[in-house]
Amino acid sequence: MSAEHRSGCPINLSLEVFGDRWSLIILRDMIFGGRRHFRELLNGSLEGIASNILADRLKRLMELGLLTKADDPSHKQKAIYSLTEMAITLVPIMAQLGAWGRVWLPVTEELSIRAELLEKGGPPLWDQFMDELRHEHLGAPPKTPPGTPTVRQQLRAAYEEVVARKAEATVD
Amino acid sequence: MSAEHRSGCPINLSLEVFGDRWSLIILRDMIFGGRRHFRELLNGSLEGIASNILADRLKRLMELGLLTKADDPSHKQKAIYSLTEMAITLVPIMAQLGAWGRVWLPVTEELSIRAELLEKGGPPLWDQFMDELRHEHLGAPPKTPPGTPTVRQQLRAAYEEVVARKAEATVD
DNA sequence: CATTCCGCTTGCATTTTGCAATTGGTTGCA
DNA sequence: TGCAACCAATTGCAAAATGCAAGCGGAATG
Predict the structure, then answer these.
(1) Do residues B37 and B82 make contact, with C-beta atoms less than 8 angstroms apart?
(2) Which letter does DSSP use for residue B36 in this model?
(3) Which of A7, A36, A76, B83 shows a CA-CA span of 20 to 30 A to B111?
(4) Do A95 and A108 sit in the same domain of this protein?
(5) pLDDT grade, residue B146 (50/70/90)?
(6) Whole domain around residue A77: which residue ranges?
(7) A116 and A46, same structural domain?
(8) Which residues of B touch A87 (CB under 8 A)?
(9) β pairing state of A79-83 and B67-71
(10) Nearest nucleotide (CA of B19 to C1')
(11) How far A95 CA sits from the closest chain B CA (Å)?
(12) Which of B40-44, B47-51, B168-172 has the lowest mean pLDDT?
Protein backbone atom coordinates (compact mmCIF):
# COMPACT_ATOMS: atom_id res chain seq x y z
CA MET A 1 0.00 0.00 0.00
CA SER A 2 1.19 3.50 -0.69
CA ALA A 3 2.25 5.89 2.03
CA GLU A 4 -0.85 7.97 1.38
CA HIS A 5 -3.07 5.21 2.70
CA ARG A 6 -3.66 4.47 6.33
CA SER A 7 -4.10 0.74 5.69
CA GLY A 8 -4.98 -1.73 2.97
CA CYS A 9 -8.31 -2.60 4.55
CA PRO A 10 -11.14 -2.25 2.04
CA ILE A 11 -13.45 -0.50 4.49
CA ASN A 12 -10.72 1.95 5.43
CA LEU A 13 -9.86 2.64 1.81
CA SER A 14 -13.53 3.20 1.01
CA LEU A 15 -13.69 5.65 3.89
CA GLU A 16 -10.65 7.47 2.59
CA VAL A 17 -12.71 8.06 -0.55
CA PHE A 18 -16.07 8.87 1.07
CA GLY A 19 -15.18 9.82 4.60
CA ASP A 20 -16.37 13.38 4.33
CA ARG A 21 -19.70 15.12 4.37
CA TRP A 22 -19.98 16.00 0.69
CA SER A 23 -18.53 13.48 -1.75
CA LEU A 24 -21.40 11.02 -1.52
CA ILE A 25 -23.96 13.86 -1.57
CA ILE A 26 -22.60 14.97 -4.94
CA LEU A 27 -22.66 11.43 -6.28
CA ARG A 28 -26.19 10.95 -4.93
CA ASP A 29 -27.38 14.03 -6.83
CA MET A 30 -25.74 12.79 -10.01
CA ILE A 31 -27.03 9.24 -9.66
CA PHE A 32 -30.55 9.86 -8.42
CA GLY A 33 -31.09 13.46 -9.48
CA GLY A 34 -29.51 13.14 -12.91
CA ARG A 35 -27.47 16.31 -12.44
CA ARG A 36 -24.53 16.78 -14.79
CA HIS A 37 -23.52 20.46 -14.51
CA PHE A 38 -21.75 22.47 -11.83
CA ARG A 39 -24.70 24.86 -11.40
CA GLU A 40 -27.22 22.04 -11.15
CA LEU A 41 -25.20 20.48 -8.38
CA LEU A 42 -24.66 23.83 -6.68
CA ASN A 43 -28.23 25.14 -6.73
CA GLY A 44 -30.08 21.84 -6.69
CA SER A 45 -28.43 20.49 -3.57
CA LEU A 46 -30.88 20.35 -0.69
CA GLU A 47 -28.02 20.57 1.74
CA GLY A 48 -26.54 23.78 0.32
CA ILE A 49 -22.99 22.96 -0.69
CA ALA A 50 -20.59 25.91 -1.09
CA SER A 51 -19.12 26.51 -4.52
CA ASN A 52 -15.51 26.18 -3.42
CA ILE A 53 -16.21 22.86 -1.73
CA LEU A 54 -18.11 21.62 -4.77
CA ALA A 55 -15.23 22.58 -7.07
CA ASP A 56 -12.74 20.89 -4.78
CA ARG A 57 -14.76 17.68 -4.51
CA LEU A 58 -15.44 17.44 -8.23
CA LYS A 59 -11.71 17.71 -8.84
CA ARG A 60 -10.99 15.11 -6.19
CA LEU A 61 -13.61 12.70 -7.51
CA MET A 62 -12.07 13.02 -10.96
CA GLU A 63 -8.60 12.33 -9.62
CA LEU A 64 -9.95 9.28 -7.82
CA GLY A 65 -11.52 8.00 -11.02
CA LEU A 66 -15.17 8.37 -10.05
CA LEU A 67 -16.05 11.16 -12.46
CA THR A 68 -15.02 12.44 -15.85
CA LYS A 69 -15.53 15.88 -17.30
CA ALA A 70 -16.29 16.90 -20.85
CA ASP A 71 -17.25 20.04 -22.75
CA ASP A 72 -20.92 20.56 -23.38
CA PRO A 73 -21.18 20.90 -27.15
CA SER A 74 -24.28 23.11 -26.83
CA HIS A 75 -22.62 25.69 -24.60
CA LYS A 76 -18.94 26.54 -24.59
CA GLN A 77 -18.86 27.44 -20.92
CA LYS A 78 -20.67 24.41 -19.64
CA ALA A 79 -18.93 21.28 -18.50
CA ILE A 80 -20.68 17.92 -18.32
CA TYR A 81 -19.69 15.57 -15.56
CA SER A 82 -20.15 11.85 -16.07
CA LEU A 83 -20.08 8.92 -13.70
CA THR A 84 -17.51 6.22 -14.32
CA GLU A 85 -18.19 2.52 -13.82
CA MET A 86 -16.48 2.90 -10.45
CA ALA A 87 -19.12 5.41 -9.38
CA ILE A 88 -22.04 3.53 -10.93
CA THR A 89 -21.24 0.47 -8.82
CA LEU A 90 -21.89 2.57 -5.73
CA VAL A 91 -25.63 2.02 -6.26
CA PRO A 92 -25.79 -0.92 -3.82
CA ILE A 93 -23.97 1.11 -1.16
CA MET A 94 -26.36 4.02 -1.69
CA ALA A 95 -29.29 1.62 -1.43
CA GLN A 96 -28.02 0.15 1.84
CA LEU A 97 -27.20 3.55 3.30
CA GLY A 98 -30.67 4.75 2.39
CA ALA A 99 -32.31 1.66 3.84
CA TRP A 100 -30.41 2.01 7.08
CA GLY A 101 -31.07 5.73 7.38
CA ARG A 102 -34.75 5.18 6.75
CA VAL A 103 -34.98 2.86 9.73
CA TRP A 104 -32.82 4.70 12.23
CA LEU A 105 -32.77 8.39 11.40
CA PRO A 106 -35.39 11.16 11.26
CA VAL A 107 -36.00 11.04 7.53
CA THR A 108 -38.88 12.86 5.87
CA GLU A 109 -41.44 10.76 4.03
CA GLU A 110 -41.06 12.36 0.61
CA LEU A 111 -37.28 12.08 0.69
CA SER A 112 -37.26 8.48 1.85
CA ILE A 113 -39.79 7.00 -0.56
CA ARG A 114 -37.01 6.50 -3.09
CA ALA A 115 -34.91 4.60 -0.58
CA GLU A 116 -37.92 2.45 0.24
CA LEU A 117 -38.54 1.62 -3.41
CA LEU A 118 -34.89 0.86 -3.98
CA GLU A 119 -34.82 -1.42 -0.96
CA LYS A 120 -37.95 -3.29 -2.03
CA GLY A 121 -36.68 -3.67 -5.59
CA GLY A 122 -33.49 -5.24 -4.27
CA PRO A 123 -30.48 -6.26 -6.37
CA PRO A 124 -32.50 -6.80 -9.58
CA LEU A 125 -33.72 -3.19 -9.50
CA TRP A 126 -30.22 -1.96 -8.60
CA ASP A 127 -28.86 -3.81 -11.63
CA GLN A 128 -31.47 -2.27 -13.90
CA PHE A 129 -30.64 1.16 -12.53
CA MET A 130 -26.91 0.64 -13.02
CA ASP A 131 -27.54 -0.41 -16.63
CA GLU A 132 -29.48 2.79 -17.19
CA LEU A 133 -26.66 4.82 -15.70
CA ARG A 134 -24.16 3.04 -17.97
CA HIS A 135 -26.33 4.00 -20.92
CA GLU A 136 -26.66 7.59 -19.74
CA HIS A 137 -23.06 8.21 -18.70
CA LEU A 138 -20.92 5.73 -20.60
CA GLY A 139 -22.90 5.40 -23.82
CA ALA A 140 -23.47 1.69 -23.28
CA PRO A 141 -26.37 0.12 -25.20
CA PRO A 142 -29.59 0.03 -23.16
CA LYS A 143 -30.60 -3.39 -21.90
CA THR A 144 -34.24 -2.71 -21.16
CA PRO A 145 -36.71 -2.62 -24.07
CA PRO A 146 -37.60 0.92 -25.18
CA GLY A 147 -40.79 2.20 -23.60
CA THR A 148 -40.07 0.56 -20.25
CA PRO A 149 -40.18 3.19 -17.51
CA THR A 150 -36.70 3.88 -16.21
CA VAL A 151 -35.85 3.38 -12.57
CA ARG A 152 -35.26 7.09 -12.18
CA GLN A 153 -38.72 7.78 -13.60
CA GLN A 154 -40.24 5.31 -11.18
CA LEU A 155 -38.42 6.91 -8.25
CA ARG A 156 -39.46 10.35 -9.37
CA ALA A 157 -43.10 9.34 -9.84
CA ALA A 158 -43.20 7.85 -6.36
CA TYR A 159 -41.68 11.00 -4.91
CA GLU A 160 -44.20 13.24 -6.65
CA GLU A 161 -47.07 11.06 -5.56
CA VAL A 162 -46.08 11.50 -1.93
CA VAL A 163 -45.67 15.25 -2.36
CA ALA A 164 -49.10 15.50 -4.01
CA ARG A 165 -50.73 13.42 -1.32
CA LYS A 166 -49.20 15.50 1.42
CA ALA A 167 -50.29 18.74 -0.28
CA GLU A 168 -53.85 17.38 -0.52
CA ALA A 169 -53.82 16.34 3.12
CA THR A 170 -52.84 19.90 4.03
CA VAL A 171 -55.80 21.33 2.13
CA ASP A 172 -58.32 19.02 3.81
CA MET B 1 -36.37 17.69 10.47
CA SER B 2 -34.51 19.45 13.20
CA ALA B 3 -32.38 22.50 12.59
CA GLU B 4 -29.27 20.42 13.19
CA HIS B 5 -29.91 18.39 10.05
CA ARG B 6 -29.10 19.53 6.57
CA SER B 7 -32.03 17.64 5.05
CA GLY B 8 -34.34 14.72 5.74
CA CYS B 9 -32.80 12.59 2.98
CA PRO B 10 -31.79 9.18 4.33
CA ILE B 11 -28.45 9.18 2.55
CA ASN B 12 -27.66 12.62 3.88
CA LEU B 13 -28.66 11.70 7.40
CA SER B 14 -26.52 8.57 7.23
CA LEU B 15 -23.62 10.73 6.09
CA GLU B 16 -24.16 13.09 8.99
CA VAL B 17 -23.57 10.04 11.18
CA PHE B 18 -20.68 8.44 9.26
CA GLY B 19 -19.31 11.27 7.16
CA ASP B 20 -15.94 11.36 8.83
CA ARG B 21 -12.78 9.32 8.70
CA TRP B 22 -13.06 7.54 12.03
CA SER B 23 -16.57 6.60 13.16
CA LEU B 24 -16.94 3.62 10.85
CA ILE B 25 -13.37 2.51 11.57
CA ILE B 26 -14.21 2.25 15.27
CA LEU B 27 -17.40 0.34 14.53
CA ARG B 28 -15.51 -1.93 12.13
CA ASP B 29 -13.01 -2.82 14.86
CA MET B 30 -15.83 -3.53 17.29
CA ILE B 31 -17.87 -5.57 14.80
CA PHE B 32 -15.13 -7.53 13.06
CA GLY B 33 -12.32 -7.30 15.59
CA GLY B 34 -14.45 -7.89 18.66
CA ARG B 35 -12.87 -4.97 20.51
CA ARG B 36 -14.74 -3.67 23.53
CA HIS B 37 -12.28 -1.48 25.49
CA PHE B 38 -10.79 1.93 24.88
CA ARG B 39 -7.23 0.56 24.85
CA GLU B 40 -8.06 -2.24 22.46
CA LEU B 41 -9.53 0.28 20.05
CA LEU B 42 -6.63 2.67 20.51
CA ASN B 43 -3.73 0.24 20.13
CA GLY B 44 -5.38 -2.29 17.86
CA SER B 45 -6.36 0.17 15.17
CA LEU B 46 -4.29 -0.37 12.04
CA GLU B 47 -4.89 3.21 11.07
CA GLY B 48 -3.56 4.71 14.29
CA ILE B 49 -6.38 6.76 15.78
CA ALA B 50 -5.40 9.42 18.33
CA SER B 51 -6.74 9.06 21.84
CA ASN B 52 -8.57 12.39 21.86
CA ILE B 53 -10.33 11.57 18.60
CA LEU B 54 -11.24 8.11 19.86
CA ALA B 55 -12.69 9.55 23.07
CA ASP B 56 -14.65 12.13 21.12
CA ARG B 57 -16.05 9.60 18.67
CA LEU B 58 -17.03 7.09 21.33
CA LYS B 59 -18.95 9.84 23.07
CA ARG B 60 -20.59 10.90 19.84
CA LEU B 61 -21.54 7.35 18.88
CA MET B 62 -23.13 6.91 22.30
CA GLU B 63 -25.11 10.13 21.91
CA LEU B 64 -26.27 8.95 18.50
CA GLY B 65 -27.44 5.65 19.95
CA LEU B 66 -24.92 3.37 18.26
CA LEU B 67 -22.98 2.38 21.36
CA THR B 68 -23.55 1.92 25.06
CA LYS B 69 -20.97 1.93 27.81
CA ALA B 70 -20.86 -0.13 30.98
CA ASP B 71 -18.43 -0.76 33.80
CA ASP B 72 -16.26 -3.82 33.50
CA PRO B 73 -16.99 -5.81 36.67
CA SER B 74 -13.52 -7.34 36.62
CA HIS B 75 -11.67 -4.03 36.59
CA LYS B 76 -12.91 -0.80 38.11
CA GLN B 77 -11.20 1.40 35.57
CA LYS B 78 -12.23 -0.47 32.48
CA ALA B 79 -15.28 0.42 30.49
CA ILE B 80 -16.97 -2.01 28.13
CA TYR B 81 -18.50 -0.60 25.00
CA SER B 82 -21.37 -2.48 23.39
CA LEU B 83 -23.00 -2.21 20.01
CA THR B 84 -26.69 -1.39 19.89
CA GLU B 85 -29.11 -2.91 17.41
CA MET B 86 -28.68 0.30 15.40
CA ALA B 87 -24.97 -0.43 15.02
CA ILE B 88 -25.40 -4.16 14.43
CA THR B 89 -27.61 -3.47 11.40
CA LEU B 90 -24.66 -1.72 9.79
CA VAL B 91 -23.28 -5.12 8.81
CA PRO B 92 -24.80 -5.00 5.29
CA ILE B 93 -23.34 -1.52 4.74
CA MET B 94 -19.93 -2.73 5.93
CA ALA B 95 -20.19 -5.70 3.60
CA GLN B 96 -21.06 -3.52 0.60
CA LEU B 97 -18.34 -1.01 1.42
CA GLY B 98 -15.84 -3.82 1.69
CA ALA B 99 -16.98 -5.40 -1.54
CA TRP B 100 -16.74 -2.11 -3.40
CA GLY B 101 -13.35 -1.26 -1.95
CA ARG B 102 -12.04 -4.69 -2.85
CA VAL B 103 -12.85 -4.13 -6.49
CA TRP B 104 -11.76 -0.52 -6.92
CA LEU B 105 -9.11 0.31 -4.34
CA PRO B 106 -5.56 -0.91 -3.63
CA VAL B 107 -6.47 -3.35 -0.85
CA THR B 108 -4.01 -5.87 0.54
CA GLU B 109 -4.87 -9.54 0.18
CA GLU B 110 -4.84 -10.44 3.87
CA LEU B 111 -7.05 -7.49 4.78
CA SER B 112 -9.56 -8.09 2.02
CA ILE B 113 -10.12 -11.81 2.47
CA ARG B 114 -12.76 -11.05 5.10
CA ALA B 115 -14.61 -8.74 2.74
CA GLU B 116 -14.49 -11.43 0.07
CA LEU B 117 -15.92 -14.06 2.39
CA LEU B 118 -18.62 -11.69 3.57
CA GLU B 119 -19.56 -10.86 0.01
CA LYS B 120 -19.72 -14.50 -1.04
CA GLY B 121 -21.76 -15.44 2.01
CA GLY B 122 -24.30 -12.78 1.12
CA PRO B 123 -27.33 -11.80 3.22
CA PRO B 124 -27.66 -15.22 4.91
CA LEU B 125 -24.14 -14.94 6.30
CA TRP B 126 -24.73 -11.31 7.27
CA ASP B 127 -27.84 -12.39 9.18
CA GLN B 128 -25.93 -15.08 11.02
CA PHE B 129 -23.23 -12.59 11.91
CA MET B 130 -25.76 -10.06 13.18
CA ASP B 131 -27.34 -12.75 15.36
CA GLU B 132 -23.96 -13.52 16.85
CA LEU B 133 -23.38 -9.83 17.55
CA ARG B 134 -26.80 -9.61 19.22
CA HIS B 135 -25.79 -12.50 21.43
CA GLU B 136 -22.42 -10.95 22.22
CA HIS B 137 -23.51 -7.36 22.78
CA LEU B 138 -27.18 -7.46 23.69
CA GLY B 139 -27.39 -10.80 25.49
CA ALA B 140 -29.86 -12.20 23.00
CA PRO B 141 -30.17 -16.01 22.85
CA PRO B 142 -27.92 -17.54 20.18
CA LYS B 143 -29.72 -18.84 17.13
CA THR B 144 -27.03 -21.13 15.77
CA PRO B 145 -26.55 -24.54 17.38
CA PRO B 146 -23.62 -24.66 19.83
CA GLY B 147 -20.42 -25.93 18.24
CA THR B 148 -21.07 -24.20 14.95
CA PRO B 149 -18.07 -22.01 14.05
CA THR B 150 -18.96 -18.36 14.41
CA VAL B 151 -18.71 -16.00 11.50
CA ARG B 152 -15.96 -14.09 13.25
CA GLN B 153 -14.02 -17.33 13.70
CA GLN B 154 -14.46 -18.12 10.02
CA LEU B 155 -13.26 -14.67 9.03
CA ARG B 156 -10.31 -14.91 11.38
CA ALA B 157 -9.34 -18.36 10.12
CA ALA B 158 -9.42 -17.17 6.53
CA TYR B 159 -7.26 -14.18 7.44
CA GLU B 160 -4.69 -16.30 9.20
CA GLU B 161 -4.57 -18.75 6.34
CA VAL B 162 -3.64 -15.96 3.95
CA VAL B 163 -1.02 -14.61 6.34
CA ALA B 164 0.50 -18.09 6.75
CA ARG B 165 0.53 -18.70 3.01
CA LYS B 166 2.21 -15.36 2.36
CA ALA B 167 4.83 -16.01 5.03
CA GLU B 168 5.58 -19.37 3.45
CA ALA B 169 5.85 -17.83 0.01
CA THR B 170 8.42 -15.39 1.39
CA VAL B 171 10.55 -18.21 2.74
CA ASP B 172 10.62 -20.11 -0.56
C1' DC C 1 -25.13 46.34 -25.47
C1' DA C 2 -26.69 45.37 -20.89
C1' DT C 3 -27.99 41.42 -18.12
C1' DT C 4 -27.72 36.96 -16.87
C1' DC C 5 -25.39 32.76 -16.61
C1' DC C 6 -20.96 29.81 -16.71
C1' DG C 7 -17.46 27.29 -13.77
C1' DC C 8 -14.79 28.33 -10.81
C1' DT C 9 -11.29 31.31 -7.43
C1' DT C 10 -10.06 34.34 -3.59
C1' DG C 11 -9.86 36.06 1.10
C1' DC C 12 -10.88 35.26 5.56
C1' DA C 13 -13.01 33.49 9.87
C1' DT C 14 -14.37 29.31 12.17
C1' DT C 15 -14.20 24.51 13.10
C1' DT C 16 -12.10 20.13 13.06
C1' DT C 17 -8.16 17.26 13.18
C1' DG C 18 -3.73 15.35 14.65
C1' DC C 19 0.11 14.87 17.70
C1' DA C 20 2.50 14.62 22.06
C1' DA C 21 2.47 15.06 26.67
C1' DT C 22 -0.03 14.59 30.83
C1' DT C 23 -3.86 13.62 34.37
C1' DG C 24 -5.84 11.22 38.48
C1' DG C 25 -6.74 7.04 39.61
C1' DT C 26 -6.33 1.48 39.69
C1' DT C 27 -4.04 -2.85 39.41
C1' DG C 28 -0.50 -6.34 39.77
C1' DC C 29 3.70 -7.74 41.47
C1' DA C 30 7.86 -7.80 44.54
C1' DT D 1 4.30 -1.28 51.39
C1' DG D 2 6.22 0.56 47.35
C1' DC D 3 6.32 1.09 42.61
C1' DA D 4 5.87 0.26 37.78
C1' DA D 5 2.43 -0.61 34.49
C1' DC D 6 -1.96 0.30 32.94
C1' DC D 7 -6.73 2.66 32.67
C1' DA D 8 -9.78 6.01 30.13
C1' DA D 9 -9.46 9.92 28.98
C1' DT D 10 -7.88 15.39 28.86
C1' DT D 11 -4.95 19.38 27.66
C1' DG D 12 -2.30 22.55 24.76
C1' DC D 13 -1.15 23.73 20.49
C1' DA D 14 -0.23 23.66 15.45
C1' DA D 15 -2.07 22.44 11.06
C1' DA D 16 -5.65 21.41 7.99
C1' DA D 17 -10.38 21.44 6.47
C1' DT D 18 -14.69 23.82 6.15
C1' DG D 19 -17.99 27.50 5.33
C1' DC D 20 -19.38 31.97 3.73
C1' DA D 21 -19.54 35.89 0.71
C1' DA D 22 -17.78 38.29 -2.87
C1' DG D 23 -15.64 38.45 -7.22
C1' DC D 24 -13.45 36.79 -11.80
C1' DG D 25 -13.21 36.72 -17.09
C1' DG D 26 -15.70 35.02 -20.54
C1' DA D 27 -19.97 33.40 -23.07
C1' DA D 28 -24.84 33.26 -24.04
C1' DT D 29 -29.32 35.81 -24.06
C1' DG D 30 -32.63 39.45 -24.69
Answers:
(1) no
(2) -
(3) B83
(4) yes
(5) confident
(6) 1-84
(7) no
(8) none
(9) unpaired
(10) C16
(11) 9
(12) B168-172
